[in-house]
Amino acid sequence: MSDLQRDGVIFRQATEDDVPALVALYDGAARWMQRQGIDQWKPGQKSEDHFLLRMKEGEVWLADTGGSAPVGGWELWWDDEPAWGPQPPVAGYIHRLMTDRATAPPHLGRAMLTHAEHRITRTGRTLSRLDCVATNPRLRTYYESAGYTVTGEQPLKDGGKGSRYAVTLLEKRLVD
Q1: pLDDT tens for residues 23-55?
Q2: pTM listed for this prediction
Q3: Do residues 93 and 74 lie in contact, with contact meaning Cβ atoms separated by under 8 Å?
């Protein structure tokens, strides 16, 4: 998929060359969460292998403003059984929406959500789905303000490596 630009931000699919920057972006977002008292991501939790696998099984996107490093990124999956169980192919699943708080332009998170939603509709799917840790009401409120509706909770999502935690499930209808 070619690069797309919006308000000075270029959205492009990540390549293997971008993997170190993705790890740095994730770790930076995790450190910011910790400083805010948000117990969700931990620095070092997502390795280069994680992002390479996500590229192989789905899509990983970056937001660039022409600086030396990406200012944001996210993963777009085409199924998410650990959170949603088996589902028909009607949705795209947004994961790891992350920004560099020091360099990202205002409202980048919302612009990345919008780009992901447009990408989902271009595949013919009509729903955007995501989840957030059930103990993070601030993030839930953010997604609800972007038009997402809570559809339930998965009390024992398998996060890999034996970790299980509760997540709130949210979705947004993209096409009527």
Answers
A1: 999 999 999 989 988 888 899 999 999 999 999
A2: 0.92
A3: no
